[in-house]
UniProtKB/TrEMBL annotation:
Name of the protein in its database record: Dodecin
InterPro entries the UniProt entry points to: Dodecin, Dodecin-like, Dodecin-like_sf, Dodecin_bact
Domain of life: Bacteria
SUPFAM superfamilies associated with the record: Dodecin-like
Taxonomic placement: Bacteria, Pseudomonadati, Pseudomonadota, Betaproteobacteria, Burkholderiales
NCBIfam families: DodecBact
């Protein structure tokens, strides 16, 4: 296996649908501007609620992308 170096960035996606959808939105947006995106880690999940009703999800990700040679 070759050696790789990764750089990290942190992004937050939001969605009224689900936490999974918020992750997909964050990854899609990050991949539009960053090449070699290879992994992510969920750092935080939060939401906006009124009573027992969830109105909005926010998910913060640590995203790793491979630095090109």
């Amino acid at each position: 296996m070759s050696e790789h170096v990764y750089e990290l960035l942190e992004v937050t996606g939001s969605s009224p649908i689900s936490s999974d959808n918020a992750v997909q939105i964050a990854l899609k947006k990050a991949s539009d501007t960053v090449r070699n995106l290879e992994w992510f880690e969920v750092k935080e999940i939060r939401g906006h609620a009124e009573g027992a009703n969830i109105l909005h999800w926010q998910v913060t990700l640590k995203v790793g992308f491979r630095v090109e040679d």
